[in-house]
């Protein structure tokens, strides 16, 4: 079945639309369709891809108006003779479907998404024991692949360039909740800031589009509770 790919192109200065006919077969993904176009029509078409297994998050893009992973989206499953493909919203576009993730990753890095220990003796390391129920508290949020889908539909991210975004705050909650971590107070000063959790509109679109079925909106709300307790303790110096 021939399917028309309507792709939003960008050359660094102006945007335009281009259409290509792709001979779609059963099981063929949108990513494979893009490679077909690049190899048979226009080698200058730019997009990101790596693992082709829904793990790296590189190929996230808008497919018929919804952020999806191109490597996991089968063309025929869309049930259309023409599909529209665009770069993710809320990101600066570098070229065609390639978005600039520098700001996204800086915000993620800002929440210190790693285990922090107050005293770590590397000469005499100690095993940090964790119970299964403690793991389950944060496990879902550790599955984030940093694809940017949640950030692209976030209304707060669209209106505030400095807003941390759902992915970064879900990461903050993930490590705050980890029983092995001791850096909660350090992260709280970041997520309590003007660009943190209280800027969330709770639109919950971030959870709707997550390809890993993580619930960033829930993480943000739980993080709000943590920040409220933290702020009260800080105010009364408990």
TrEMBL record:
A Pfam short name: Fer4_10
Assigned keywords, A-Z: 2Fe-2S, 3Fe-4S, 4Fe-4S, Iron, Iron-sulfur, Metal-binding, Oxidoreductase, Tricarboxylic acid cycle
Biological processes, Gene Ontology terms: respiratory electron transport chain; tricarboxylic acid cycle
Coiled-coil portions: none
Keyword Oxidoreductase annotated: yes
Annotated 2Fe-2S ferredoxin-type domain residues: 1-91
Stretch forming the signal peptide: none
UniProt xrefs under CDD domains: fer2
GO terms, molecular function: 2 iron, 2 sulfur cluster binding; 3 iron, 4 sulfur cluster binding; 4 iron, 4 sulfur cluster binding; electron transfer activity; metal ion binding; succinate dehydrogenase (quinone) activity
The 4Fe-4S ferredoxin-type domain, residue ranges: 135-164
Record pathway: Carbohydrate metabolism; tricarboxylic acid cycle
Cofactor(s), by name: [2Fe-2S] cluster; [3Fe-4S] cluster; [4Fe-4S] cluster
Record bears the keyword Isomerase: no
Enzyme Commission (EC) number: 1.3.5.1
Record family assignment: Belongs to the succinate dehydrogenase/fumarate reductase iron-sulfur protein family.
Name under which the protein is recorded: succinate dehydrogenase
């Amino acid at each position: 079945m021939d399917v028309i790919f309507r792709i939003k192109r960008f050359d660094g200065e102006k945007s335009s639309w281009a259409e290509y006919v792709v001979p779609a077969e059963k099981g063929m993904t949108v990513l494979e369709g893009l490679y077909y176009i690049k190899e048979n029509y226009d080698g200058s078409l730019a997009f990101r891809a790596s693992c082709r297994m829904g793990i790296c998050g590189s190929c996230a893009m808008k497919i018929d108006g919804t952020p999806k992973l191109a490597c996991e989206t089968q063309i025929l499953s869309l049930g259309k003779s023409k599909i529209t493909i665009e770069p993710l919203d809320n990101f600066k576009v570098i070229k065609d479907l390639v978005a600039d993730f520098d700001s996204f990753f800086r915000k993620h890095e800002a929440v210190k998404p790693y285990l922090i220990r107050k005293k770590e003796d590397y000469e005499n390391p100690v095993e940090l024991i964790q119970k299964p129920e403690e793991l389950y508290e944060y496990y879902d949020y550790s599955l984030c692949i940093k694809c940017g889908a949640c950030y692209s539909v976030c209304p707060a991210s669209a209106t505030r360039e400095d807003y941390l975004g759902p992915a970064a705050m879900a990461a903050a909650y993930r490590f705050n909740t980890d029983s092995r971590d001791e850096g909660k107070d350090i992260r709280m000063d970041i997520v309590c800031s003007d660009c943190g959790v209280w800027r969330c509109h709770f639109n919950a679109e971030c959870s709707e589009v997550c390809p890993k079925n993580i619930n960033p909106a829930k993480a943000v709300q739980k993080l709000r509770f943590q920040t409220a307790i933290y702020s009260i303790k800080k105010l009364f110096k408990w």
